[in-house]
Inverse folding.
């Protein structure tokens, strides 16, 4: 099996680790816009060699794990370069625009639009983890537009990785992922910003921070290069949920300001049902 | 050693677990406003017996781990009941009012105002954990008002538990803990509420949620009975930081709305410095 990974960071690198383990004879080629990442990925053993055009044309599978702005630019050219029997999958956190950009591509049937719900707040080849995808959800959009045999090859990999598959149209994906992922990142970034600003002159105060603070701000470590284009591409959905969030925070603020502590109790009590919802979410086993 | 724990939930129960381990001969008495919690604590082996007035008067140490509204009501009576050589410590997440309420108490020197920065989003005796306090910060307020010998007894325990001690005045504590703890809880509760409201009719969508969502909303599982009085007692500081947070979210919203993606990138890049800050925060080893 020949696999090409374009963008060898946390996501691509984690695919590389597991493919190597599952298919010891697989040959993995990599390409990254950052030459230092290519070198690092080779040193770490994530990839065997750097990928050129020839590797693309001969690959069984191409995994494109680049920021979603680069994805829109690069994916058509990658499809141009691959062979008739190559399946190309992405891993982008937005799905409408990428499906749109290859809608009429002559090799649309070679593309499988994917979003693995997996990751950490770290990035780069050294952030890649063994078993990252185990028990995680793989969302696939417009599956009917991909050649059946190529779907099958991708599914075999996802099954071997232990992933759960969910099919969805790109618009639904983008709407709901704004709720359960993109908003969390904004909430976390702005929480980090707010506290850093308030504590600017008193750094020791972070001695007072515990695991609750860590948990709510850890996504503020995420890569701006990855997240800026996600917010750009999903602007409408993100604005909608962000407005709802700000509205709820303002309502809580007003209750507090007006000493409506029964109301505050009720808000929290009603939200405690999140316990049941969170039970179903698979977490990373090996993340620090 | 005789220890009385008033309020045998996560915090009091975790003290009980470690005291039993460190001092196998210690006798631990417990009291809880909820009789089912008293029974559960006995069955779990957290306490040996239920505590009455006599146990209070003979105790070497009394740990009061009740919600901060109950603390203000009960602490003066507890101090009335303890012996001259008993050290009484609390674990409340606000410190100004509790220090105020015992300011002129004849046994003020028996009280040590404490806030262990430790916990999880769970509550009750079954949530108690071994080693919860290891590596965590114990904030002590107005230490100079506690009898030296009683300070020493408490410090010996904290040292044996592996805690770091930080001294602070109650007003500074309440201001900064609003930043690094209370705000995180509001952010998390309102994030949970917002997403539950948006997803009301599409429950399967939580299949799309990953560890990032879980991390930012897990504090929304916290106990309303514990948190409502915290927000009440720390209203001024909480309103100040909540307003700053809402202001930052609105500024982010406006940048997104105006397609100012350079600005969004910069916001996130500047906030990435949280990485360095978070490195110093001790996390729970044994929490699910």
């Amino acid at each position: 099996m020949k696999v090409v990974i374009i963008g060898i960071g946390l996501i691509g690198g984690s695919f590389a680790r597991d493919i190597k383990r599952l298919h010891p004879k697989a040959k993995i080629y990599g390409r990254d816009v950052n030459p230092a990442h290519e070198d690092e990925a080779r040193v770490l053993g994530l990839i065997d060699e750097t990928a050129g055009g020839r590797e693309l044309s001969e690959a069984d599978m191409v995994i494109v794990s680049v920021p979603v702005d680069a994805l829109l630019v690069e994916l058509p050219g990658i499809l141009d370069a691959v062979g008739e029997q190559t399946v190309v999958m992405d891993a982008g956190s937005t799905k409408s625009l990428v499906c749109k950009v290859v809608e009429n591509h002559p090799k649309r049937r070679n593309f499988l639009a994917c979003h693995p719900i997996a990751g950490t707040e770290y990035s780069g080849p050294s952030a890649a983890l063994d078993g990252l995808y185990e028990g995680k959800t793989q969302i696939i959009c417009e599956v009917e537009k991909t050649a059946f045999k190529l779907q099958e090859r991708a599914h075999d990999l996802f099954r071997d990785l232990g992933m759960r598959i969910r099919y969805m149209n790109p618009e639904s994906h983008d709407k709901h992922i704004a709720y359960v992922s993109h908003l969390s990142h904004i909430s976390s970034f702005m929480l980090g910003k707010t506290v850093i600003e308030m504590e600017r002159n008193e750094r020791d105060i972070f001695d007072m921070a515990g695991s609750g603070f860590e948990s709510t701000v850890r996504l503020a470590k995420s890569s701006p290069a990855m997240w800026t284009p996600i917010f750009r591409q999903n602007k409408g959905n993100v604005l909608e949920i962000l407005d709802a969030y700000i509205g709820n925070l303002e309502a809580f603020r007003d209750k507090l300001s007006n000493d409506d502590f029964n109301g505050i109790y009720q808000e929290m009590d009603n939200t405690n049902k999140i316990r049941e919802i969170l039970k179903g979410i698979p977490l990373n086993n090996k993340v620090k």
Summary: Chain B touches chain A through 97 residues (CB under 8 Å). Strands of chain B lie at 2-6, 27-31, 49-50, 61-64, 87-90, 111-116, 137-141, 164-168. The first strand of chain B starts at residue 2 and ends at 6. The radius of gyration of chain B is 21 Å.
